[in-house]
Batch of 2 targets.
Target 1
Amino acid sequence: MYNPRVEDLREREFPMLRDTIYLDHAGTALYPKSLIERFAADMVSNLYGNPHSASSSSQRSTNRIDDARLHLLQLFHANPDDFDVVFVANATSGIKLVLEAFRDLPQGFSYLYHADSHTSLVGVRECANQHHCFASDSEVEEWLVDRQMKKVQAAQVPELFAYPAQSNMNGRRLPLEWCSRARSTGRSPHEATYTLLDAAAFVSTTPLDFSDVETAPDFTVLSLYKIFGFPDLGALIIRKAAGHVFQNRRYFGGGTVDMVLSLKEQWHARKTDSLHDQLEDGTLPLHNIMALHAALDIHHDLFGGLDMVSSHTMFLAKALHDGLSALRHANQMRVCQMYSSPHSYESSQAQGPIVAFNIRNSQDAWISNFEVERLASIKNIQLRTGGLCNPGGIASHLDLSPWEMKDNFSAGQRCGGEDDIFGGKPTGMIRVSLGASSTKSDVQRFVNFVKEFFVDEKPQSLGLPGPPHSQTSEHGTFAVESLTIYPIKSCAGWKVPPGQEWEIRKEGLVWDREWCLVHQGTGVALSQKRYPKMALILPTIDVERGCLRVRYCGEMPRPFKPPEISVPLSADPSYFVSEFPKSSTTKVCGDTIPAQRYSSKKIADFFSSVLGVECQLARFPVASRTGASMRHSKAHLQGFSQKGVSRPILLSNESPILVISRSSLNRLNEQIKSSGGKAAEAEVFRANVVIAESLQSVPGREKPYAEDEWQYVKIGEQLFELLGRCRRCQMVCIDQQTAVKDEEPFVTLAKTRRFNGKVFFGQHACHVRLGDSRSRQAQYATVKVGDAVRPVCRGADE
Ligand SMILES: *Cc1c(COP(=O)(O)O)cnc(C)c1O
């Protein structure tokens, strides 16, 4: 049943959702504003000290912690006589506490777990004498029945049986009654089977009822931030009847012992009052525990309790599941491969509010999760993709056998990596998870998103849309409209003044990406993707005075004075950190590059204060010093085959020269405007050379994307080889004048220029040296604005 109150709460309680659709509640819930306000009011009006002392502030903390334990037990209808709560950092820490106890048992233990387990449950097996993974529910059922019929021997060593109440991968729910059926007390504690229930995913939207102590699990772990959004805290609920296993735990931490002898004799006495006293090592996260009071109250006030949340989210999950499974391509192929059984969303016994799926195109090929996540992020939709920390669930639903997974791993597959389809199979899934604050409109907008980007409305032909094959001579005549260099990587460009001859070197236009900004801590080069304000840093090449001048055109932070800095164009060694290159390697796009960092504090302060991150200016060493040109050597080439022609494509955003065409941009902007979007400026593509069709061309007869077909091009007197199309990411959405992000032009590019899951615009190029190296033309190759641009066929006699 849908709770319409949530619609009213959205504006007031979740201002962070204003332009965002949050669909990762299985990762963490969202905290309402009034929860933070209630907590803040408590913190500023009361003094809370560290417990374990007699002061009134300490006593106040102790009392509040005791109350929090009680309230948490009440949420689960658990009688404090039968259960205890141990506060831990997260569900994983709770699992590890249980593991420690079993590992330290004199006979060790045997571990049984279900294939749907979260990674944190799977890892327990590494400490067990022996372990077994149940591949399916029916295997668990068989084991339970066989044991009941005494077909299998009673446990020889203590057994721990663990499973998730709800799979964090697809939301499937597992039978809760396994807990009591699996438990056996045996003749002694050493012949008993204990149960560990991972309720982290389950309780985020659904109540658990421990009112019958006989059917409750022995150990239950949960993540409170998945229910309330805040505080960051986990809990282990222990059925006191099983508490004796902890007596064998060998480690003791501060707060868990009454006396410890260290000198001459080694002896200690554990606390005996309660389980939590024995298990909570060190200082408790007391402010987090305090916040639990506010979290419980506010959650109930706003959402009406976990029962209401459960029916609200299940209503939405069913709508989401039905919406996605109904999508069809024009050729009637299904769009979404769902990873849940068809009718499970009708029952909250069988299913939680999570929908896991993958997308296929109309040619029956998989769409990469990476691509989906990238497009979703452009549309401000937050979801999770990949292996989802659920190795067994992924392997069985994606039909991946161990050898395939190992093979994929050695072929470079990593969770969250860009390559996620191997051997024609996806290696991960898309997970959309709903929570107390989700609404019908979130669901509708998500289904529309999938429709907009992934449903093929027309029968598709393979290949990138482009102009039909034509003779190069038919193309209009092009000329250089502008030349731009980007002296500091990822900062604003500087336009070469018209009429000025600009030198081309092997590594590109002179002074292009000669400098970069590096993080002072990690040495990694900064980029606009993370620091959009870099677009407002304006470098200028002042050839006359021989310096690079840098201005910031955004609002300057108050106490900071100099509006501009400058460094010489010559690489004067006295400007650099002396111990080059040892301390000054830097990373650009994953590659380690030796860059020289400037030592000046004034320069560092300038960049650090405008960007709000501690960084320093660095310079790439001159090509002659290291032999090969840095930039050119970074151009990763990858085989790329289209229509049988193999052309290289550059993966890295670093290539010698980037060329875009005004006609292509015009076409793109027409498409953007026809859907009401914001047209893109040429600047967002960060091209070095913008070419435009000359004025003689007949209007309306432009040749957009003609450059896709070119192999070589002559600009003025210089020959360039086109290396391949330039792959694009969200960085093109940063307005270079305001540093504000938009969804265009990426959204339209993704619809019109997407090939093999990759989005392309512009061409990478490098200069080809011709003729006698002693000629002036070869020694000092230049281009200028206005130069004619002529495509040249491969093999043409030059
Ligand atoms: C989130 C989750 C975990 C891990 O919880 P942490 O709080 O990150 O330790 C374990 N199991 C399931 C089912 C989960 O959903």
Target 2
Amino acid sequence: MTNPKPQPGIMNIKPYVGGASSIDGVDNVIKLSSNENPFGPSPAAVEAFQRAGHDLHRYPNTDHAALRGAIGGVHNLDPDRIICGVGSDEIINFLCQCYSGPGTEVIYTEHGFSMYKISALAAGAEPIQVPERERMVDVDEILKAVTDKTSLVFVTNPGNPTATMVSQAELARLARSLPDNILLVIDGAYAEFVDGFDGGAELVERFDNVFMTRTFSKLYGLGGLRIGWGYGAQAVIDVLNRVRGPFNLSMAQMAAAQAALEDRDHVAHCLSENTRLRAWLAEALAALGIPSDTSCTNFILARFANAAEAKDCNEFLEKQGIIVRMVGGYGLPNCLRITVGDEASCRRVAHMIGKFKGGAPGSKLMLMDEDRLDEEGK
Ligand SMILES: *Cc1c(COP(=O)(O)O)cnc(C)c1O
């Protein structure tokens, strides 16, 4: 008797582990482990979501025209070359399903997002991990790894969990240097947090083999609803649309995403708070002897002396009801990734890390001028 056998590669997938959201025995946890927007989505998005509840018996439209039009309007992109998916995770899946498979290689970088490897394996492709340099994407290492089997290259910019950014010139060099038959995917999940950064859109316009993915899960605070999108050459979009389920997005998802996109005041508020509190938190940690690279995102990668200290601090914070993210699985065992929360959460996590470090009242952290926090945003 032969049992049903999965496709090659499937059994090599290590299931994705999300940021924890609860601690046994603690009621009011502060969750800083999944890079969620501490202010939540725009109230207009919540309202649009609720309104969609009146039409649950209707199938959604299949072309996402209104949402694509709204995205195109805000980002100044051609709506015909946008594809929407169930989170950018689904777009990443489409890309691997369509452009990789048995006998091909998918390149991603050392500290890159784990979904690239999962989706590549699911498609039967060979995932190839290349080193980064000091927590930065290294274009030369990527180019060195290219073979005639390479089909896809994934680069997150800004990076997660590194929070660093590779320059536009370096990305352009990568796009220019890759053979035309390899698709370069720039994952811009955090692009919105960088003032003036287009997430790679300009490179998509210049090169038919460059593709950009984006999401409503981070800045727009809609991680729970699952909406992402991609932008690429018409030929690539036409390919991806063949594997996209016609009803992959519900009316509620589309309506909420569009409303979130159109509430620019909420976006501006979230961005300015993130910028202000991120600077404060990084400085507070630095004052405790915990350095971090300048963050281009909505989280900070705090570097501890070693893996044991990072682990101990994580456990200490957990006991205080604060959840941050261990990133040993991303090759950064001496680090903790801390989402920039609201002001109270930032103060609390800095205070508790100070306690962990043995800083009693009167220590440098405590002396950080409280008013500075209020002034920095101005
Ligand atoms: C959060 C994140 C995404 C977004 O995933 P969604 O499926 O859109 O929620 C994509 N890439 C990276 C690097 C991320 O951190």
